[in-house]
Amino acid sequence: MSVKAFKLVCAVEREMLMGDKAHINIECIECCGKNLYIGTNDCFIYHFLLDEKISTAGKTTFAATKQLHKYLGFKKSVSELKAASALTRLLVLCDNTITLVNMLNLEPVPTGARIKGAVTFTLNENPVSTDPFCVEVCIISVKRRTIQMFVVFEDRVQIVKEVFTPEQPYAVAVDGHYLCLALTTQYIILNYDTGSSQDLFPYCSDERRPIVKRIGRQEFLLAGPGGLGMFATVDGISQRAPVHWSENVIGAALCFPYVVALDEEFITVHSMLDQQQKQTLPFKEGHILQDFEGRVIVATNKGVYILVPLPLEKQIQDLLASHRVEEALVLAKGARRNIPKEKFQVMYKRILQQAGFIQFAQLQFLEAKELFR
């Protein structure tokens, strides 16, 4: 049964990005605070400022103001963008090279520092280094079966480690010293410091796109066999039941307590608390779905949209109004980590009371008694 957990709101319309140039496609996005960056297939980066407005009726809209755009000088697409806000740097992958550019004016750093030979890259959100003025970057190298770790400073880069993998890697996520890798036939956890590895489960990269996503300290979300979204810790175990996706999931993101997935026709929302599918939003031609500091963004080739979560209290009240007491209580307990303690206790008592009255009206007196207690 459905819950209205998110609303889909347009952030950047086609005309703002490309005007009448129909050949321009969005290849990648990055969002950092109010800054939205878009990389295109004709080697441009666009910088927008996003302004979120909430009307008196509670409706959310976004106004995107274009700051500037910059041509990188290649005849290739901009493949990936990652912001390192502490350094005011944007890491840009284009033509197998990661270039450092200034986040504000999009100019390359004067030293020309860059990382060459990268197929794809990710940042370590749980860094090993204690230096706040550097970021740790993990790349899948153009060298076969090779992962490289770099430390990136404001104007220079430094290689830290080169790791060889048993098969060719296609996707990677990092947490501390741990790499979660999608290889040709399986997912593995690899500790790049000790060299120890742990097999997770088989996976065929020829059949569909692998998904490897860090969702918290020492925990990852993976696209498993049979259309399952699987959770795995660095110890190679799963502490949560899997969620049932479609077979052809393109991207996944986390917005607690929900896992959001994108396929060719829909955005689906599953609860991490009871693994049930809660919402389905029609969305055709989507090819990017990512979360940035808790904000979930989806994009087609021509436009950028934001999934705005409805307040958890509103979702709980909607469930109670539909007499879905069990789901409301599960969501209320799950909301504990998102709401200040005092406010949560007041809200939770009120929800238990409402739930008790619903059970009482349905003549479920024992259950009502427990809730009233």
TrEMBL record:
Give the domain of life. Answer: Eukaryota
Compartments it resides in: Cytoplasm
One record GO biological process: autophagy
Q: What is its main location?
A: cytoplasm
Q: Which UniProt keywords apply?
A: Cytoplasm, Protein transport, Transport
Family matches, as InterPro entries: CNH_dom (IPR001180), Vam6/VPS39/TRAP1 (IPR032914)
Q: Name one Pfam family in it.
A: CNH
CNH domain location: 23-296
- Provide the Gene Ontology terms for cellular component: cytoplasm; membrane
This protein's name: TGFA1 protein
